[in-house]
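dude i think i finally got it to work??
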Amino acid sequence: MAVSLERQSFLVEPLSPGLGAVIVGLDLRQPLAEATRRAVYDHFARYHVLCFRDQHLDQDQQVAFSEQFGTLEHHIARNRGKINPLVQIVSNLGPDGKPSGKVSSDRWHSDKSFRAQPALATILHAQVMPPDGGETCFANMIAAYEALPAADKAELDGVRVVHSWEISRARAGGQATPEEIADAPPMSHPLVRVLPETGEKALFMGEHAAYFEGLPEEVGRIRLEQLTAHAVEERFVYRHRWTLGDLLMWDNRCLLHRANTNFDAARFPRVLQRTCLRGVAPA
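look at this
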């Protein structure tokens, strides 16, 4: 499908039946014409994962592209060395610059769901990738919600979930610092949120979703685990096989995502640069 605009055009090709599309024909180092920017956002709201092929953005250029769609969020995890503070380097490299064998972000989550205004979009740009594996996996929370029985939908209506960076770090075997806890206190959001562009409903949960507000923590944790197991079934999942130069822009409001650890992370580097657009309080 070609999208013709007054100043430039691009092609849109679906990536899978469930979600995702490739956009071909844009150089994201250049500012987008307003009509192009609106068209890109419309496709973002429709497909939820956009892949821009053959891009070569440095950190400042990625920030400039991202800011055309909103306000960038700062990152809790700090980078070593000289770097734009609005960019986070996602990698398996250790302090010595060599592959460490560890892959971060391998648990299903929605970026910054613990914020009062969780991330609208994440923009992730492939810099160095393993020869095979290391995909980013996405689960469609709209489709997962729609597939629930009517009784479950009624049960979840009005339920609020507490999202906590501190608890998610502890469950993963880490420990949040006092500064991180102060920067990201526990935050309550509806379990079922509505996308304003379409009125569709989506489950909003993931690694940072800790428990149901007003119920014993264990009760909510077990129910969230059940819902997550349902939501990440193969029928709802798209796995993106990275090509060097790919830039992905995805919708945190209605997707869970994680990194696939199916490569030799002690041998091959996997390096991407990341920006996050601030969203609005879920409704």
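Confidence is low (pLDDT under 50) at residues 1-8.
im so relieved honestly
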